[in-house]
Design brief:
The chain has helices at residues 2-16, 80-86, and strands spanning 18-28, 31-38, 44-53, 58-62, 87-91, 94-97, 123-129, 144-152, 156-162, 169-171, 177-183, 185-187, 192-199, 202-208, 210-215, 223-224, 231-235, 243-248. The chain is mainly β.
């Protein structure tokens, strides 16, 4: 009987050390929201993800949590490479973040070499880390939530995968064996160029969802045209090479 009790106890410990985390893409009003869900009460310490589109570009990231997870605001707001480049540690846990530059998008120049190209390309590598006081249970990030929103240049199938070189999905504590489920989605982007045509040297762009912007190269600098009506015209005789995108409202 004693042996059976020991065996059952060992099985219970083994079961408690395994958990499932789901990371998925959700289309909401034409924006690709990257979300997570812990299905067995587990806690995640960090996410390293590759997100790609099969058409168009990912040109923006927004709606991500910034900073340490506290009782008043919980989330994954520590982005390792961006923390190094755009955060200043004043003393202890007193940190200031540059809101214009601090971002979960991985830095391509860093190792490992499998980092995706980043914004204004078909793929981004994202890093989200959680930092909280372990003695304060109310500071732990929620068991489900939003990591960020990605803005697309056109409707596309959006895929998400773990970036193993950067750690993938890490549990807290790290000895918990996580089973990960990653699910993409089709996102019918609402801030998109719908059509273009040239007639008698005049370019006409039809679009929806925001202000049309133009740039001399695909990486910018982007300048607003001031037009959000859905139709834009411009003579192509002297304009040179230009790229266009719609900036989401």
């Amino acid at each position: 009987m004693r042996k059976w009790l020991i065996f059952i106890s060992g099985c219970l410990l083994a079961v408690s050390a395994r958990a499932t985390v789901r990371v998925f893409v959700q289309d909401t009003n034409g924006v690709a929201w990257v979300k997570y869900q812990c299905t067995a009460g587990e806690v995640v310490r960090a996410f390293a993800l590759d997100v790609t589109v099969d058409q168009g570009l990912i040109f923006g990231v927004s709606d991500f949590f910034v900073g340490v997870s506290t009782t008043g605001a919980q989330g994954y707001g520590i982005f390792p490479a961006s923390f190094r480049d755009h955060a200043t540690v004043i003393s202890g846990t007193n940190v200031t973040f540059d809101p214009a530059q601090y971002s979960p998008v991985g830095v391509v120049a860093d190792n490992p070499s499998d980092t995706l190209p980043g914004l204004n390309s078909s793929g981004v590598t994202l890093e989200f880390g959680g930092l909280w006081d372990p003695s304060v249970s109310s500071a732990v990030p929620g068991l489900a939530g939003t990591l960020c929103a990605l803005h697309l240049s056109r409707a596309a199938n959006v895929s998400v995968a773990a970036n193993r070189s950067r750690g993938g999905i890490v549990a807290s504590p790290p000895d918990i064996a996580l089973t990960t489920v990653l699910a993409g989605a089709f996102v019918d982007a609402d801030a998109v160029i719908m059509s273009t045509r040239i007639t008698n040297g005049v370019l006409t762009v039809t679009f929806k969802g925001g202000e049309l912007e133009s740039a001399p190269t695909v990486v910018g600098p982007w300048t607003g045209t001031g037009n959000s009506t859905g139709t834009y015209t411009e003579s192509i005789g002297a304009s040179g090479t230009k790229f266009y995108r719609v900036h989401h409202r």
